[in-house]
Amino acid sequence: MDLLRKAGPLEPGYTSVVAGDTFQLKYLKMGLLRLDVSARSYEENSGEDEIVLDLLSGTCNVHVEGEDMWKDIGSRRSFFDDPPAMVYIPRKQRWRIEAPDPPVLALVFRASARRDTAPAIVRPDAARTVAIGRDNWQRTAAMAVTDNVDADRLIVGETYNLPGHWSSYPPHKHDNAATPDEAPYEEIYYFAVEPKQGFGIQRVYTAPDDPKPLDEVYVVRDGDAVVIPRGYHPVAAAGGYRVGYVWALAGDDRRFGAWSVDPDHAWLTDA
Predict the structure, then answer these.
(1) What is the pLDDT of residues 69-98, one digit of tens each?
(2) How far apart are CA 4 and CA 16, in angstroms?
(3) Is residue 267 part of a domain?
(4) Contact 24, 33 (CB under 8 A)
(5) End-to-end CA, the chain
(6) pLDDT score at 103
(7) Which of 111, 121, 135, 224 has the CB geometry, 3.0–4.6 Å to 250, for a possible disulfide?
(8) Domain annotation covers residue 228
């Protein structure tokens, strides 16, 4: 199974990148929304999906049915230099995004929702930033849409690797409900690389005794996405290049950190 979606040219408006049935995903979908001088706004109904918008570049206004318009969202210097701004949109809501001063680029994550919730905005100063790991697997993560937002299934944040560093490491997985601390989640990574000609490495693999073994390794570049339906999924940044990614999870049990570490590498957790 090819889990890599390569970056490509974007037309104005919404472009679907990961549709759930393409990768046997039950809940999670992803697209990109580009606004420019030819298309300064986009509007839709969320239907049965809850949605998280992550503003990658530019500044926009967002209006969700029944709410005052949220203005001047974004204005990020770069993916690596500022925390994210995100907007959470519940199911069954009419919403609109506007770009007074285009261009604007936003990630759009969707997951089928079981209940009604409330819209929310997470501005950069509200995204909790934490340092994780040590040595050359130390990285920084921004927890944007986690327990601070009453979403039904979606959990969304960002991770930033220094050159030559690893993340999602020691390798962990979240595809099994049989262990006390692990719950099944589908996940998508959307990558940013700086300078943009650089690359990183993403591996997705299962345990040797898995009845449906999976072991894939991908070269990831700026704007690529990798779907993680199951398995361990570490990331490495090439020397000289910062590699980051937006991660979105969706599952029945919304509990960030409900995963298990590859037993072969668990000793690194306490190293």
Answers:
(1) 999 999 898 999 999 999 999 999 999 999
(2) 14
(3) no
(4) no
(5) 34
(6) 96
(7) 111
(8) yes
What is the value of pTM for the model shown?
Answer: 0.97
Q: How far apart are CA 23 and CA 49, in angstroms?
A: 18
Q: What is the dihedral of CA 206, 207, 211, 217, to 10 degrees?
A: 30
CATH of the domain at 157: 2.60.120.10
Say if residues 172 and 165 touch (Cβ distance below 8 Å). Answer: no
Structural domain count of the chain: 1
Range of the domain at 56: 4-259
For residue 179 the two structure tokens come to: 């262990």
Residue 264 is assigned to a structural domain of this protein: no
Q: DSSP 3-state assignment of 36?
A: strand
Helix (H) or strand (E) run with residue 193 in it: strand 186-194
